[in-house]
Amino acid sequence: MNIHDENGTTVLRRADEKEPPRTLANLLIGKPLATADAPHETIGKVVGLAVFASDALSSTAYAPQEIMAILIVAGLSSYQYVFPIALVIVGLLAIVTISYEQTIHAYPNGGGAFIVSRDNLGMWAGKIAAAALLSDYILTVAVSISSGVAQIVSAFPNLFDYRVWIAVGLIFLIMLINLRGVRESGIIFAVPTYFFVVMMFVTVIVGLVRYFSGSLGTVIDPPEMEMLHSTQVVTGFLLIRAFANGTTALTGVEAISDGIPAFRQPRSHNAGVTLIWMSCILGALMLGISFLGANIHALPSEVETVISQLARTAYDGRGTLYLMTIIATMVILVMAANTSFADFPRLGAFAAADGLLPRQLTQKGARLVFSRGIVLLALMASLLVIIFQASVSRLIPLYAIGVFVSFTLSQTGMARRWFKIGKLKEGEEVKERSSVLRYEPTWKFKMIINGFGAVATFAVMIMFAATKFMDGAWVIILIIPLLVTLFSVIQRHYINLAKKLSMDNYGSPPPRVTRNRVLVPIGGVHRGTLAALRYARALSDDITAVHIAVDPEEAERVRQKWEQWGDGVRLMIVESSYRRFMEPLLLYIDEIYQRKQPNEVITIVVPMFVSHKRATDILHTNTADALREALMFRKGIVITNVPYLID
Amino acid sequence: MNIHDENGTTVLRRADEKEPPRTLANLLIGKPLATADAPHETIGKVVGLAVFASDALSSTAYAPQEIMAILIVAGLSSYQYVFPIALVIVGLLAIVTISYEQTIHAYPNGGGAFIVSRDNLGMWAGKIAAAALLSDYILTVAVSISSGVAQIVSAFPNLFDYRVWIAVGLIFLIMLINLRGVRESGIIFAVPTYFFVVMMFVTVIVGLVRYFSGSLGTVIDPPEMEMLHSTQVVTGFLLIRAFANGTTALTGVEAISDGIPAFRQPRSHNAGVTLIWMSCILGALMLGISFLGANIHALPSEVETVISQLARTAYDGRGTLYLMTIIATMVILVMAANTSFADFPRLGAFAAADGLLPRQLTQKGARLVFSRGIVLLALMASLLVIIFQASVSRLIPLYAIGVFVSFTLSQTGMARRWFKIGKLKEGEEVKERSSVLRYEPTWKFKMIINGFGAVATFAVMIMFAATKFMDGAWVIILIIPLLVTLFSVIQRHYINLAKKLSMDNYGSPPPRVTRNRVLVPIGGVHRGTLAALRYARALSDDITAVHIAVDPEEAERVRQKWEQWGDGVRLMIVESSYRRFMEPLLLYIDEIYQRKQPNEVITIVVPMFVSHKRATDILHTNTADALREALMFRKGIVITNVPYLID
User: Fold this and answer.
1) I need a surface site. Which of A86, A617, B65, B587 has the fewest CB within 10 A?
2) What percent helix, strand, coil does chain A show, rounded to 5?
3) Residue B219: which pLDDT band, with cuts at 50, 70 and 90?
4) Of residues B29 and B251, which shows the higher confidence score?
5) Residue B353: which pLDDT band, with cuts at 50, 70 and 90?
6) pLDDT above 60 (res A96)
């Protein structure tokens, strides 16, 4: 349908515009929505849980083990504190869940930490949240994959020596899948997530039944540990460190608040219910695994995971149920890593839309740009895996800080939002950038909830940073301000650019171009040259073909052929005494440029060979790119390639 | 000076054409010669020796040690064979030197193995020689740098654990220097080469004087060796293996025959004399170091080099003279590696001129292409250093094969050339591609000399390949045919391309272009847009500005601004329902393309921001490149960027 308006502007609105292909990324970030469209194909709570919960639920695979890894230095007797610590963490989970429940209802179009902190606290807070989240996504990949490989190694101890390369291989496999942009449905997520949930509950329930009936016992043949008979005593500091490690269980809880638009209407309601289900499952598994892990005296080891020790104790050996549990755990960890591959470019796009990152990142369709983000993520995560030798325990001190920074900012932003709502009159509505503020009588209560969430997550963040600083947390504490600085530099560049390009104070436009001098550099007279000449003819009547005479005999051949095929166009042969091509050509162009009038432009038309065999591209000189590079800063010179298909 | 001829062709001959800047590469490969010019600024024998000898002379730093490294498995008593083996190697050196002496006089413009074998044996031989030499250059860098680092480690044993990274660091330093293209004079070569020659002769003479006066003794506190008390006996196979290792002393002897054009007139005479000097120095050092090394019972070790053990025995400890000897050795090894950085791209250019490698490599001035060759060489050499842990002994089995393949081909080619000369009449001259054949009465004698050289070097090559096959020689024996295949594939591509582009059977040219439809995609109305519009105006009267309306409010702003600034040009607003930019634009272009007449072209004019701060380029969307990529195969669409300088 075309609508013409009176000023010569035509508006093209395509009724049949095709929906872009659905990719794994689309599914995670919500189906691409037509601006004017009401959402029609969305997901319900059951699929939603599968899609958004893998990151959060998979953390039960390492969080209990990492609590034990700290306590074990004080010997097995310290295991009495594992369950109480898990209880405190589940309490924290409850606080965070209730806080996010409010965010989900306030931001039905998606309330990630970046948007909530930017809108309510200002751009500086948004920048910190974005920096924290970007580093967190890299760590999610590194930690999840390392933990996934640790599960494989637990079942197949011979693979221990290859764990780093298996991990890097898995990261690159996920990268390739994401680069290809597989079209997937929720089922791909539903199967492994629910398989994991079922297997873990079966394991925990079998374990609990056997424990209370007295038939469980402890791990047979546990992995060797040197520090087992340590005489260190349990200190408050040790307990805090163990607690800090356990808080990694909370990573991924925020995923649903980012993905609200993917849910079926009523979106906020469905997303909120899903969040509560997810937190209940997460909390139950966390308590169950911690309780049983401590009671069977599982030892936190690089060689065998606690999950593996628990499963083979519950199932009396490495049978089918054991193997299914390990596989389920491994797969959900890989799925968790995979979600970062969708989150990372999406957050990049949000930040880019605000001018904090290169603008190209906002173009979802631009495969190349999207690809670069995916490759960057894979490389950074692989680097971490190699540096830390795929050891979850060594990666953990870097993890969780970013998550808790974003929790804190997001909850503070929400509290601030309730405060603003409290100042509205009843029935009043204020439209903000990403949400609508409406008066609510319960604003004080809700402000206190989010405020309490902010204080609690801030306290955990400080605890984590302080107790893990030397173990690696300093890396993240260094990287976040560096990223924030980078955002600011990029933002300043765009602001300055906009000023320079602005039409304000532009004055009157320059006079029209009166002469377009066209140069056609030719290496020889062939079909590609003639295609370029034919195009040049369409641009101007003022054309000069230029041949750089590296070899005098060749130059003579060119002159003779040009007489036959040159269509009467002037030919200039420039002798090159030093057998060079670019320098004499640039010198000649420069001479013409010096004599250029203000209203004249120079167009250089260069044939370019193109072939369906893309590998052969490197066999053809790209003169146009070389000229563009050399003449970039000469005002009034334009370089044009005329493609010539050689196959 | 301009010479117009009658056909509208202008010939531009510049009397003042500037000589290209002299770089380190220029110096090594001969100053850039103006085609019509007689060479005027060339080097004499003293500087010539310094420039071309570093590769050959530096091999005395490892060749004697590598002979001993094989013999030592049969215990110290086997050291009686070190000097005899060195004598045989010097004999081989004499044969090769006399053979190359004849090449130098036959090819006054440079007679590298590639040119000599291609011209006399055919392109297949040229391809093998080129493949052998390219792999050899990579190994020269890896071996020389590894040996250089071994010298440093000998003097500073604490650095042993960091040897791989020091080696990689040095390679990257040399790479950076070559990428920058330092302007250098012969002095830079003369100082370290002569410093090395002097230090080595002083060390050898001091050693010999003390040996014959009976005061030398053996190495105090030699590096530990497990195999020292081995009971293995000396076999013929062991001697052949030791000899094969020692032939690495001959690597680099061919350098002068490549560099003849750099010498002062009479070029061949000067180059020939320099070659003989170089071989004499090399032979003398080889014999001296082998004799002394064996007699002081120096042990071939990764921890301390034979040179280091010899120097501290001759100078009674690690004093100033010792340190000067080590530094001189280290520096000349680095210089030797550096020569490969000039040889590698130069051979690439020769091969490219024959269509065996991408044509761009022939363009000396094209910095980018030259740079890629340098970076490739550095990466490959670094990879070898990392894989072989900077161990000269482990790299040696890969080395020397390439050199002896090229020796054999080159000498066979020369023998063939004498045979052709023998069939000429007296006084007759035949101009071949790179040299002139003139009858010589002594042709039979000279043919026998080159023929003998060919047989000798071929025998060494077979010996080397057979005894070192499993140790790593297989890698090179595999790589050479792979490279030859690659050359053939590339060559075939160029031959096919030339056929397809040929004007034979072209028929009559297509009719002229009757309509040039210009599209100007605009994201907003700003100064860059107006620059693109102004250029579009110069191309055609048929212009449409296209705005992809991702955001309806922004689209309305564009429409209003266009009314003011659009100069009456038609504006098309294409609505994008899925917030995408490229897809709707491509769809729109496609619709216009479908309606295109055969004599119509479509030009898409895209503004491109350019800035002197090149780092900011990644902050600007390069729509033109994306369109070029997407529309490459659409005949009759040309994409043009109009640069707009933003600072």
Assistant:
1) A617
2) 65, 10, 25
3) confident
4) B251
5) confident
6) yes
The answer to whether residue B368 scores a pLDDT higher than 60 is no
**Is this complex scored with an ipTM above 0.90?**
no
Strand A515-521 and strand A543-549: pairing? parallel
Is B536's pLDDT higher than 70?
Answer: yes
Contact A9/B at CB under 8 A: yes
> Which tokens belong to A263?
């849910």
Which are the contacts of B314, defined by CB distance < 8 A and separation ≥ 6?
B203, B206, B207, B210, B216, B292
> Reduced to 3 DSSP states, what percent helix, strand and coil does chain B have, rounded to the nearest 5?
65, 10, 25
Q: Which residues on neighbouring strands pair with residue B604, listed in sequence order?
A: B519, B639
Query: A389-393, A505-509, B446-450, B463-467: which range is least confident on average?
Result: A505-509
Look at residue B5 in the predicted model and tell me its pLDDT. 53
Residue A7 at interface with chain B, using a CB cutoff of 8 Å: yes
Say whether pTM exceeds 0.95.
no
CA dihedral A83, A87, A90, A91 (to 10 degrees): -170
Contact A572 B10 (CB under 8 A): yes
Nearest to B499 by CA among A535, A647, A554, A621: A647
B495 touches chain A (CB under 8 A): no
Give B-chain residues touching A576 at CB under 8 angstroms. Answer: 17
Is the separation of the CB atoms in A63 and A89 below 8 Å?
Answer: yes
pLDDT number for residue A368? 52
CB atoms within 10 A of CB B597: 11
Rounded Cα distance between B160 and B153, Å, is 6
Residues of chain A positioned with their CB less than 8 A from the CB of B513: 534-535, 537-538
pLDDT at A5 over 60: no
**Angstrom distance (rounded) from CA A637 to CA A450:** 59
Tokens of B625: 């490149």
Confidence (pLDDT) at B408: 95
B2 touches chain A (CB under 8 A): no
**pLDDT tens, residue by residue, B618-634:** 777 777 777 887 787 88
What chain A residue is nearest to B625 in terms of C-alpha separation? Answer: A625
Distance in angstroms (rounded) separating the CA atoms of residues A496 and A504: 14
User: B497: nearest CA in chain A?
Assistant: A646
Report CA-CA distances (Å) from B293 to A298, A531, B380. Answer: 61, 70, 33
Chain A residues inside the 8 Å CB shell of B647: 500
Out of B37, B537, B638, name the one closest to residue A513 (CB). Answer: B537
Region A427-440 average pLDDT: 84
**Contact residues, B window 32-71, toward A, CB-based 8 Å cutoff:** 32-37
Q: Which domains, from first to last, does chain A contain?
A: 46-491 (1.20.1740.10), 515-645 (3.40.50.620)
Q: Is there a contact between A497 and B580 if contact means CB atoms under 8 Å apart?
A: no
Per the CB < 8 Å rule, is A577 touching B641? Answer: no
Contacts of A622 in chain B (CB under 8 A): 360
Cβ pair B380, B344 in contact under 8 A: no
* Residue of A579, A610, A617, A633 to mutate when probing chain B, most B C-beta within 10 A: A579
Q: Do B581 and A365 touch (CB under 8 A)?
A: yes
Three-state SS at A570: strand
Are residues B365 and A580, on separate chains, in Cβ contact within 8 Å? yes
Q: Which of A251-260, B62-71, B215-224, B510-519 has the highest mean pLDDT?
A: B62-71
| Torsion B290-B296-B301-B303 (CA) sign | negative
Q: Do B527 and A503 touch (CB under 8 A)?
A: yes
Whether the CB of B530 is below 8 Å from some CB of chain A: the reply is yes
A645 touches chain B (CB under 8 A): yes
B599 touches chain A (CB under 8 A): no
